[in-house]
Amino acid sequence: MAFTHVIFDLDGTLLNTLDDLTAAGNHMCQLHGWPTFTADEFRFKVGNGQPKLIERLIPAEFAGDGRVFEQALSEFRTYYSAHKQDRTAPYSGIMEMLDALLDAGVTLGVLSNKDHAATAPLVAQYFGDRFAVAQGRVDAFPPKPAAPITLHVLELLSADPASTLYVGDSNVDIACGHNAGLRACGVAWGFRGRAELETAGADYVIDEPRELIDIVL
What we know:
Layout: E1 5-8, E2 15-16, H1 18-32, H2 39-42, H3 50-57, H4 66-83, E3 89-90, H5 94-103, E4 107-115, H6 116-127, E5 133-137, H7 147-157, E6 164-168, H8 171-179, E7 183-187, H9 194-199, E8 204-206, H10 210-216
Parallel strand pairs: 1-4, 1-6, 4-5, 6-7, 7-8
Antiparallel strand pairs: 2-3
Helix pairs in contact: 1-4, 3-4, 5-10
């Protein structure tokens, strides 16, 4: 077995959450009369956590206005909390891949830049008890790709970086793995695509979930 532990990003890797994130962001923008965005535009705005997403959605004339930012973030979180499962679903082949890894004795975790209050319920809803740890963004740690939160998850999993693989769909995820001393696998089916992952220096890039089984085992 090449890897005893695998840590996954959530959005764009395990779950296709793009439509629900887009709806929440556009709802917040519409409340203020700001421009809205297509799902294709949104895929390049997510990935660094909800506070950074809100910064990217707020028009330039309100940049740095703390009151506007806090109101917009609260509006986004409230709407997303109520609608985060309207159109979200696992990508095809994900469940079979996870079960194959578990059957082989691999320990699985999730590390997302999505707020922890949204991450934990989504993981439990869609994946049951398949993951030993499901960690979202919390104020105690800087978001990915900074290493501290990844090192925290490794500690919770009692995992050795040398035998742990990080899997995600963006350059943030590749940097997340590498910053913590892990090898990183990019998934081309996610929000950003193969070119970004290769440019980011991914150790592996895969097109279908079943390809991960061969890499790990």
